[in-house]
Amino acid sequence: MKQRFLLCITFFSFLLLNAQTIDELAAVRKGNSAYQQAENIRTEAMQLIEKGGEVNARQANEKFKEALKLYQDAEISYRKGMAVTKNFSKANYNLANSLYRQEKYEEAANSYKYVAEQKENDKSIRAKAFHNYGNSLLKQEKYKESIDAYKNALKLNPKDNDTKYNLEYARKKMTQQQQQQQQQQDNKDNKDKQTQQQQQDNKDNKDKQTQQQQQQQQENKDKKEQQQLQQQQQQDKRQLDALQQNERQTQKKVAEEEMKKGGKARQEKDW
Q1: Stretch 33-53: mean pLDDT, rounded?
Q2: pTM of the model
Q3: Among 257, 255, 237, which residue's Cα sits nearest to residue 245?
Q4: 149 near 169, Cβ under 8 Å?
Q5: Choosing a second label site near 172 at 20 to 30 A (CA), which of 47, 79, 143, 256?
Q6: Beta strands in the chain (DSSP E)
Q7: How confident is the model at residue 85 (pLDDT cuts 50, 70, 90)?
Q8: How far from 201 is each of 189, 191, 192, 212, CA to CA, in Å?
C-alpha cells in the first residue's frame, strides 16, 4: 500500500439539488479551514516520523493529537453544514474526509457512498467518492466490497492509476484473507477431528474398563458363590456326621440298657 493512502481531499463544487442556507455554507467553509489546518499539521508529523529518532517521534505524536482535534472541529462544522439541507453532497464528502482521518471508517464509508451514488453529481466527483468509499471499506477489511467500489470508480474514470493500484491491492488482500480463513477452517476441522477421535478413544477405553469391571465382578460373584457352595457342603457334611454320631451313641446307649436288664444284646449280623 502506498504510504499516502490516496485520500482525495480536494474541495470542490457540487451540483446541488437544493439551495443551502448561508449558515450552512459558512459552516462548510469553517470546516474546510479546520480540515486544511489539520492536513498541514498531519503532513508535518509524517515528515518528523520519516526523519526518525525519539525526539521527532514525540513531537510527531503531539502534532497528530493537534491534527485530530482539528479534524473533530471540522466534523462538527460539516454536520452543521447539513442542519437544514440533510443531503448536502459537498458537506457529506468533506464530512467523510474528516471522519476518515479520525479512523471512523464505517461512518466515512456511509458518507462517501451517498455522494458516489448521486448521479446528479459530476462523474469525476463520483469517481473520487467511490475511490474513497473503497478505501474506507479496505480499512475495515471488507475486501470484496472495496473491490466493487474501486471498479465503480474506474467505470467513471478508467485512467485513474491510483484506483487501479488500490484495486489490485484489495484483490491481493482478499486472496490472503480467503487463504487465512481456509487455513483457520482447516485447523478447526483438524481440531474437531482430533477432538472426535479423542472422545471416541475415551469412550472405547471407558467401555473396555466397564467390560473389564463387569467381567471382574462376575468372576468375583462366581468365586463367592463357589465359596458359599463349598461352605454349605461342609456344613451339610458336619451336620450329617453329627447325626450319624448321635445315632451311634443312641444305639450304644440302648444296648447298654438292655444288658443291664439281663437281656441279650441284639447282635448285628454280618451278612
Answers
A1: 96
A2: 0.66
A3: 237
A4: no
A5: 47
A6: none
A7: confident
A8: 18, 15, 14, 16
